[in-house]
Amino acid sequence: MAVGRADHVSYYAASRAPAPWPVRVGTPPAAARCFRARPALDDPRGPLVGTAGTGKTQQAAHLARRAWDEGRLDLLVWVPAGDREAVLACYAQAHAELTGTDTTAAPEQAAQAFLARLRADAEEPRPRWLIVLDGVADPEDLRGLWPPDHPGGRTLVTTRRRDIAQPGPVRAVVPVAGFTPAEGTAYLRDVLAEGGRDAGAEEAEALARELGLLPLALSQAAAQLVREGLDCTAYLGLLTRPGGRPLAELVPGPGALPDGQHFGVHEAWAPSCERAGRLVPGGLVGPLLELAALLPDGGAPASVLTRPAALRHLERHRTAPSPDGAAPRPEEVTAALRVLDRLGLVDCAAGDAYPSVRMHPVLRRVTREQVPAHRAGAPALSLASALAEAADRDPDDAGFGPVLAACTEELLRHAGTVLWTHPLTGRAAAPRRDTFSATMDAFFGGEPPLGVHPLLFRVGEFLGGTGRAGAARGHFERLAEEALRRQGPDSEVVDGARERAAHWRGEAGDPAGAAAAYAAMLGERIHRLGPEHLGTLATRAALGRWRAKAGDPGGAAAAYAELVPLQERHYGPAYPEVFANRALLAGWRGESGDAYGAAMAYQALLDDLLRRLGASGGPTLPRETFLGTVVTRPNWYDVFGAHFGHAHWRGRAGDPAGAAVSLGHLLAEQTRVLGPEHADTLATARERERWARYGGGG
Questions:
Q1: Cβ count within 10 A of residue 275
Q2: What one-character-per-residue DSSP string does 435-458 give?
Q3: Inter-residue contact 434 to 395 (CB < 8 Å)
Q4: Could you tell me the sign of the dihedral formed by the alpha carbons of 83, 86, 89, 95, in that order?
Q5: Which residues pair with 468 in a beta bridge?
């Protein structure tokens, strides 16, 4: 016997006879059109837990109807468990049906009496029961109201709350996700066919994936397709094309929702967001969800959302003042994420390397669409800066590279225009000095080119620096193409991205290709920047380096021969980098066949080094401070390297005896300064013995 509905319970003022067995209190919702049972959820042993719209209620209703229709139940109670009062009212009504008594005056006592009838020791002649607690919003509402364990009874719970704990034997929650791709595609095609619309498998799957395979979203999208006479491809275009329509405009209105639904999919998470706002102090929920909504399907480390740029975003856009007046702290963000996870708004999963944060694709879309237009770009800029800060924090974390690339791709997909802005927009005030910073110093005077957010360069350098040179090359090639499309051939971004693509092309195993790319770039930079611009000088140095790696010592020597005079004019002859490149020029001159010229070049370099260092007190190993870090500047090694090069090429030029004598002097100095067991000292000793044998000496 059915009494009441899922959203309404009737009360009787006067006593009456108990309802005859079997008894049903409350009515499970009817099956949705083209309902698809999921075998994995056919016999759940714990609460059905999932975010909004995954079909938890439909699955529970399917199980309840099947058990009732097959005659396996004496009592079925369907409880709309949105709050404690609703649970008490339904329990009281069940007690009234079983006893025929009036329970309107004391629902708490009636509910407890009803639960007592369900206990195993109760004298109940018909013990087979199923209690469905549908849509539990707060586990605290069930305190003292959980049905007891009973060999013939069963309790089935649906909820978005991951922190629900059903009393009794340990019952792990049963996660309810969306459809699989095959299920989602088949469901969408079936619903459309029922409405007289045909859909190909490929276009139906594309739409189903874009809607996150969420059953609620697919049912409402199908209803809209039938209502407006659209096909899947046209609807998908409305969702994805630039300037497309928000999801709220692409689902039926309240009076036209399918399957008795009460709200559009864009409203499905509103109750959870409101509850989160009450549980998380300081108005952090809204801006935190805005950042999470820009993450990719695979999510990102939770630590990204605690970086300084993310904290600044939370402070600027919080919807309520902090209780203590302080700026958001990382531990507050972590606590807020735990609350959002419990409420099913995000998924904080413990990964192999670090905890990650993910959000359902439809909720991400809805959240992005709800950001006010006047600050629509703020979350993207803040997240981009937070990602760059996370990369700076641990530049050697190879596992973070693919995550960083995926996050950047997602940002470009949804907020690409925003990232093509001045690089300081949304950037941290004090970036870490690392390999990326040194690269930016060399080619761009300390910053990525104007007109692009630093993240777009940072991600490529991070990929290359963590062993994915090919991925780095591909990233910069795509960046250069996009910059050319957006900004034209004179863009600094085009120039910078091409340079980095050339570098990582070499690192990926194509040094000849890298040298050719740098040679092509050199002429452009001379024309655009001038011959002594830092970027032009860096390009000449890179050209020499990659020609050498490609097995072209003559080409390398030619590049360094052009570079050194320009550097001497720009920096002065005593600049350390000038000395370093003079050494490279001498070495590659020798490798290209001019041993005598190499020996003379090393001799001149050695004389200049000793003259320069003698003026400052002689060769030493001084301790200096660079950007707050104590470093040792090895000017002894510069002298020793030049001395070794002179002796080596002197021997190669036909004077082995002279080489041995020169190396003997070097060996004495290295022994005194470095010690007899130092690797350089031992190498010099071996080289001296070799030339001594050739020269006939001892």
A1: 19
A2: HHHHHHHHHHTTSPPTTS-THHHH
A3: yes
A4: negative
A5: none
**Unique residue bearing structure tokens 């611009």:** 533
User: Containing H/E element for 350?
Assistant: strand 347-350
pLDDT mean across residues, the chain: 88
Distance from C-alpha of 368 to C-alpha of 648, rounded to nearest angstrom:
66
By C-alpha distance, which of 566, 577, 572, 480 is closest to 530?
Answer: 566
> Please, which pLDDT band fits residue 45 given cuts at 50, 70 and 90?
confident
How confident is the model at residue 355, as a pLDDT? 83
Q: Which residues contact 601 (CB under 8 A, 6 or more apart)?
A: 582, 585, 586, 589
When mean pLDDT is compared across 99-108, 157-166, 661-670, the lowest value belongs to 99-108
The C-alpha R_g of the chain, in whole angstroms, comes to 36
Identify the CA nearest to 304 among candidates 397, 385, 424: 385
Q: Residue written as tokens 């690409």?
A: 416
pTM reported for the whole predicted model: 0.84
Residues 6+ apart with CB under 8 A from 611: none
For 361-406, write each residue's pLDDT tens digit: 999 999 999 999 889 899 999 999 999 999 998 888 888 999 999 9
Q: How far apart are CA 609 and CA 607, in angstroms?
A: 5
What's the chain's length in residues?
Answer: 698
Instruction: Lay out the sheet containing 347-350: strands in order across.
Output: 300-301, 355-358, 347-350
265: Cβ contacts below 8 Å, ≥ 6 apart: 53, 214, 216, 217, 220, 247, 251, 362, 366
Rounded to 10 degrees, what is the CA torsion of 289, 294, 295, 296? 130
Helix 330-342 vs helix 270-279: crossing angle, to nearest 10: 140
Distance of CA 564 to the CA centre of its chain: 44
Cα-based distances in Å from 605 to 152, 597, 635, 644: 94, 12, 13, 12
Residue 617 class from Cβ within 10 Å (0-12 exposed, 13-18 middle, 19+ buried)? exposed
Please tell me the number of Cα atoms within 13 Å of 620 on its side-chain side.
9
* 355-358/300-301 β-pairing: antiparallel
Closest CA to 35 of 191, 204, 258: 191
- pLDDT of residue 433 exceeding 70: no
What pLDDT, on the 0 to 100 scale, is given for residue 165? 80
How many whole angstroms separate alpha carbon 66 and alpha carbon 609?
91
**How far out from the chain centre does Cα 637 lie?**
44
How many other β-carbons are positioned within 10 Å of the β-carbon of residue 37? Answer: 13
> For the segment 154-173, what is each residue's pLDDT rounded down to a tens digit?
999 999 999 998 776 657 88
H/E stretch holding 49 reads: strand 48-49
Residue 620's pLDDT is 53
End-to-end Cα separation, the chain, in angstroms: 113
Lowest mean pLDDT among 256-270, 338-352, 444-458: 444-458
Alpha-carbon gap, residue 562 to 558, rounded angstroms: 6
